[in-house]
Amino acid sequence: MSTNNLCILWENTLGTLGTLGERPTKEQWAIWEALYPVDVIRKAILKTAMKNQSMNGEMSHDYRLRFASRVMMTAVQQSAEHAENREHLRQEFEGGAR
């Protein structure tokens, strides 16, 4: 999924609030893409859209950006923690099987 597709997903699920300034800037997309895999960005957009919908569309633009960024950060941290846990369990299992 490209940046353009992610922009379209954002606009289709979160809208643009009627102005060009209400979608993430090119700089914001560049930061997200430098820090996170595309699938994490996509999931964060969808999770943000669900949160916005649960708030009857009342999330401010700033809140949408901060929420999406936090979802991305949390997803990457959890993924790293899960990988560490899997490795730890693998080592325990291999050590115990001898």
Structure description:
The model has no long low-confidence stretch (mean pLDDT 87). The radius of gyration is 17 Å and the shape is elongated. It is built from four helices and no strands. With 98 residues, it is mainly alpha-helical. It has one domain. Helix 3 crosses helix 4.
Beta-strand level of the residues, as a percent range? under 5%
Task: Give helix % range.
Answer: over 70%
- The SSE string, one letter per element, is HHHH
User: How many strand units?
Assistant: 0
- Mean pLDDT score, rounded? 87
What is the 3D shape?
Answer: elongated
How is the main sheet built?
A: none
Low-confidence stretches: none
Tell me the structural class.
mainly alpha
Number of helices: 4
Counting structural domains, the number is 1
Calculate Rg over CA atoms: 17 Å
First-residue to last-residue Cα separation: 45 Å
Short description:
This protein has four helices and no strands. The chain has 98 residues and is mostly helical.
Topology (elements, then pairings):
Blueprint: H1 3-14, H2 26-35, H3 38-54, H4 61-96
Helix pairs in contact: 1-3, 3-4
Considering the chains and any ligands shown, give keywords for the structure:
elongated, 98 residues, 77% helix, mainly alpha
